[in-house]
Each structure stands twice: as C-alpha cells, then as structure tokens.
Amino acid sequence: MYVGVDVGGTFTDAVLLSNGVIRATAKMPTKADLLESILEALDVVLKDVNIRELKRIVFSTTVITNLIAGQKHDKVALLLIPGPGLSHKHYDFKAEVCVLSGAIDYRGREIVPLNEKEIEEALSGLAAKGFKKVGVVGKFSPRNSAHEKRVAAIIKEKYPDWQAELGFRAGPQLNFPRRAVTTCLTCATRGPYRIFVNSVRQALAKREITAEVFILKADGGTLPLGNSVEQPVETIFSGPAASTLGVQALTPPDVTEVAVDIGGTTTDIALILNGQPLLSAKGARVDEQLTQVRALAVKSVPVGGDSVLELSGNEIVFRPERLGPAYCMGGPAPTPTDALRVLGLTALGDEDKAREAMEDLGAPLGMSAGEAAGKVMSLVVNSITEEVKKMFLEWEQEPAYRIWELLQKKKVRPSIVAGVGGGADGFISQIASELGCQPVIPPYAPVANAIGAAVARPTLQVSLRADTEQGYYNIREEGFQGKIDRQSFNERKALELARERLLGKAAGYGLDVALDDIEVTYQEVFNMIRGWDTAGRLYDLTVQTPRGIAGRIEIGGK
Fold it and tell me: How far is 265 from 100, CA to CA, in rounded Å?
C-alpha cells in the first residue's frame, strides 16, 4: 500500500493506494499548524489500516510555491563576486545586490583576492537595512569555492545569527546568473521548508509510521525526506509536479492535454504530450528568471478559489494572496469561490453569505450579486486563459514539443484541457471554451495532487565529481571520497562509476533499476592546463533513477 499526501495552502489532501486502486481519500483544511493538518489527513485514509503494510509515503507541497508566488518570504540579499566581464548593471536578480571585489577564473585559480574591509562594510550596510539572510555567489565557485567560504566565515564571525547560503552548494553547476537565482531562492525557502519537514517527521512519529518517506521534486522525481532538507529549492514546484502526475495517472495513456489545477491559493499549469509530462530543458523559471532546478515545464499562477477580491476604481480585481477561506465559509473577504456559489457552480459554503459578499463587492458599481459573480467568473477565467496562452509560447520552444509537433505533420496545439483541484468543476469548462478545447474533469479530480504523489516512482540521484590531477572522486549526496587512477580514468569510467554507485544506492532502497534506464541529468568535462600541458581533467556528472508514475489508477474501486 502507498500513501500520497499533498500539503497545499488551502487544503491538505491524502489518498491510500493499493494495487492501482484508490482505497480512501481525504481533503482537510490546511491549518497554521501543519502538523495538525497532516495528522488529520493521515488519520482519515489510514483508518482501520495496518500501518506495517505501508510500503511508501510520498509528500508533495505547495508551501514553497505559494510563498514565492505571493512573495511572502523573508527578504534576501545577494553578495556577488562576479570578477571581470559583464557590467554589474546587468545583474538584476530582483534582490538587494552587493558586488564584491575578488575573482576566481574558469580554471579555479584566484586572480583577484577578496577585500575583507569591503566585505565588512557591505555586511554593515545590509545589517542597517534589516537583512539577516544572504546568498554568497562567485562566478566560478563550482571550480573553487574558497572565496564563498571565506565570505561565509566573516558573516558567521560578525553576524552569527544570520543565514548564509553558498552558491557552490545551492547550484553546483556552472551558469552564474542561474546559480545566483537558485541561491537566493534557497536562502528564502530553507526556513519555511524546515518547518514543513519537521511537521512531517512529527506526524509520522506520532502515528508510529516507519514506511519509506519521500518528497516529490519539481521534475516529478522524489528525494528521501532526510536528503530534501539540504535541497529545499528542489521542491519549489512540488505541488505543480504532483498535479501533473495526478492527471497523467487519471487519464488514458498517450493523451496530449493541458493540465490545469485550480486550488485555493494558486493555479498550476502543465503540459502532457502523448501521456508524458513535458520537461523544461532550461530548468525551473521563477518570476521570469531561470534557475538550476530541474523541473517539469509548469507555471504556478497566483490566482485561486480563495484569492481576495476588491475594487480598484471602477474595476473588480483580485490580489495575488489568500487571507483565509471564502467569505461563504467564514473567511474575511469576497473570493472567486463566493462567486461560484452564487452562480450555482459549487455547493461549498453558505449561499446567503456568498450572495452578501458579491452584493457588497458589486454595489459600488451598480451591480447585483449575480452580475458581480459573473464579472468575477470572467476575470478568473480570462486570467488563467491568458497564462495558458503565454505558456503555449514557452512550451513551443521546448525540444520535446517541437518533436511532437513534427510528428503531427502540421502546426497544432493540444485540444484537451484536464481540470483538477477544488476549483475545476466551476471554472474548467469556460477555460477550455476560451482556448477552443474540450474540457475533461477526471475522477478523483479534487485530490489529484495526492494521487500524483502516491503514484510517483521513487527516484535517487548521485552527483559525482572526479579530479584526475588530484586522483580522487567524491559523491556530493553522501560526502564520500574515493581514489581513482590518474592515468586511465576518463569520461566513460566516470559515468560507469556514477551508475555503479547509483545502482548500489537503489538496491539499498529496494528499487529495481535497470542500467539502461538511468538518466544522465548533467555532464561536463573540464581540462586543467598547467603551462602548455593538460595536467588533468574535472568530470562533473549527475545520474538519476527514472522519473514517472508507477502506474495508472484503476477507476471504480474504493
């Protein structure tokens, strides 16, 4: 038996899956105390279940997604050490930025030392502005992290209560701008993510659950719960990945469709081509900036059933935040859910309260409750539809999409919109109509995220770095270091070694993985030159067990 749990900003969903059949489901309001929310959902689906029969629990969450979409995280400053090259004015990372002297070249050599007085002055300035979270990023820190480590040591000495994240750890691949964005997001999300993980651990301990526990990543793969604490940014699109896998599991194979998950806080948009979720070739995009996070080609839009509605002049607008439940369910302000209740498109909440909310919203504009509700309906539908159209332009640039389009032998877009989430029943038909598509709401649509988590295949990864000049290799996830033969080691042997380590790791988790199914997610070779000769090579690569779903859901059983 498997359990999937999705901790969203509005609801915490859970499902119990056995032999491809959903045996139990739960949808509980997410409370400020995440531990309580998780326990309530688990207790519903595990009622009368022998917990020793549980093989695996996979969690997904939109906690981090919602923080970033609503810009509710603590402010972060970036200390950049870019060295010579691009003008500093081009470094616009939508954060407080301090550029420091010092430089490491592409071969990992120090060519300009740090100016420690300058560093201390920069830190003093940030302290005066109230910053306590900083990311330290050098352009070539994956080749030599000495500068980042020294800045971190100064921060710890001067401001021991600050949180400092280093770029070579947060984003270990080359590409300075993406590493800077990834480091900034890591700094912003580590604290909230740690609270989430602690809540999960406490819930499992309270119910004496000892099954394997994983967290769903942005690419649809998983991380063991313990490992995920070091890589919180990997879960940045965990919720959208869960809804995408859920749609994949609930619809027939080989279907091409747009997945639209309308939740209370956000709406997540993804694309499934011939039954397989589209992977972003460039990594996760956050606020129009690329990161080093491997992710499905998804987007999280800050509009949902509980978005706050208000007047701006003579227009009804929504704010990209959730203050609580809908007014008809005891919340503080009008929301799209109230509009759906007035229009008879949902049975949630008190109809009189919903009508009151729409009357108060529409009265200054001379609108009745029904007219205001209709206006809100159009506003939400148009907002989501426009975001889907924007995503089509991005999806069409993805290599996998171009191949799919070539196979169609004509320029064509998917004709199905699959709606899941709590708001699907009310909105998806009109969204599909605006896009000229057929609407589909699969069974178990309200808990599709939890289903996506439950059916996700466990994935493990190994990141190997080998240095033939020094004669050693290390495995980042394990902190392991071993020796290699300086003369005979090459790219083929690096890949064989990484795969061998991964197969051993998978066997330890009881995963049956074929050698040919292992994904190479990153690979780079760098020649180290001393004088006029090649003194050695650096091999950096990451391998991962296959992502995807373990199987599709058999409809009809519970």
Answer: 39
Is residue 210 situated within a structural domain? no
| Cα–Cα distance for residue pair 158/4, rounded to 1 Å | 44
How many structural domains is the chain composed of? 3
Closest among 397, 391, 396 to 417, alpha carbons compared? 391
pLDDT digit string, tens, across residues 365-385: 999 999 999 999 999 999 999
How many residues comprise the chain?
558
Last residue of a domain, one of 127, 162, 189: 189
DSSP annotation of 75 reads P
Contact 152, 164 (CB under 8 A): yes
- Domain extent, residue 471, equals 461-544
275 — phi, psi (to 5°)? 85, 0
171: which 2 tokens?
């984003």
d(CA 465, CA 172): 11
User: At 343, phi and psi to the nearest 5?
Assistant: -85, 0
d(CA 296, CA 407): 21
User: Are 341 and 431 members of one domain?
Assistant: yes
Q: Residue 86 and residue 230: Cα distance in Å, rounded?
A: 31
Q: If you write DSSP's letter for every residue of 292-333 in order, what string do you get?
A: S---BS-EEES--TTEEEEEETTEEEEEEEE-SS-GGGT-SS
Q: What percent of the chain is helix, strand and coil (3-state, nearest 5)?
A: 40, 25, 35
DSSP state of 356: H
Give the pairing of strands 461-467 and 533-544. Answer: antiparallel
CA-nearest of 159, 85, 152, 168 to 114 is: 152
Q: Kindly state the helix (H) or strand (E) to which residue 276 belongs, with its residue range.
A: strand 276-277
Q: If you average pLDDT over residues 17-36, what whole number do you get?
A: 91
State pLDDT tens for residues 37-81: 999 999 999 998 999 999 999 999 887 777 776 666 778 999 999
Containing 271, the helix (H) or strand (E) segment is strand 267-273
Report the interhelical angle of 369-395 vs 424-434 (nearest 10°). 60
Tokens 């009809």 correspond to 556
- Return the amino acid letter for 129: K
Rounded to 5 degrees, what are φ and ψ at 484?
-130, 160
